[in-house]
Specification:
The protein is about 75% helix and about 0% strand. It is an all-alpha fold. The model has no long low-confidence stretch (mean pLDDT about 90).
Amino acid sequence: MSRHERWAAGAVALMLVAGAAIFLYAPTDYLQGPVQRIFYLHVSSAIAAYGCFTVVLIGGLVYLRRESLVADRFARAGAVVGVVFTTVTLVMGMLWAKPIWGTYWTWDARLTSTLVLWMIYAGYLLVRRLADPGRQAARIAAVVGIFGFVDVPVVHFSVTWWRTQHPGPVVVNDALPPEMLATFLLTMACTLALAAVLIAIRYRIETLSDERMHMAEEVKVITAPEPRMAP
């Protein structure tokens, strides 16, 4: 078993532990009932997405300063994993909203800003896919990723800056019973570990992709026909 396979197995095991805590240890919420259990993965996925987009931010800044391929690969990996966790956040939020609000979606400040965040980083990935690989594409994507990070604090503080239907920061306000708080902290730690493993795996994929592309370019140069001299 390779190193990445061991990391993946460990991350899966941690998520199973978190799942057991969510369904077997945490008490059922008195007001919302069993659907409240979505909270643990919903919020943890949002925090993991913040972390992934922080990787994109740092990777973009380092690339613009030093043109480091390592930084660029980490930025690419962080964007892919961040979009995945943002998708999970949105889906979990919609599943939670239906029984509580009576609708899957409302143009609430938190939901809308989260959707905008997803669109920004989906656009980042689209830029990477459509632009010709190389220095220019990496620089354009770095700028998109850096400016896109501006929406992260908007998402996080939207429930305090504006009047929203979305619940406020219950963890910061110490509104959770000890069992729920412990379950949330465990789930958050396990989700962050999963995000880190996924970024490491994706970084390896990006590295292999770059190496394959570099080899293809070298082969193209070697096999290119020599220009003929005019008679």
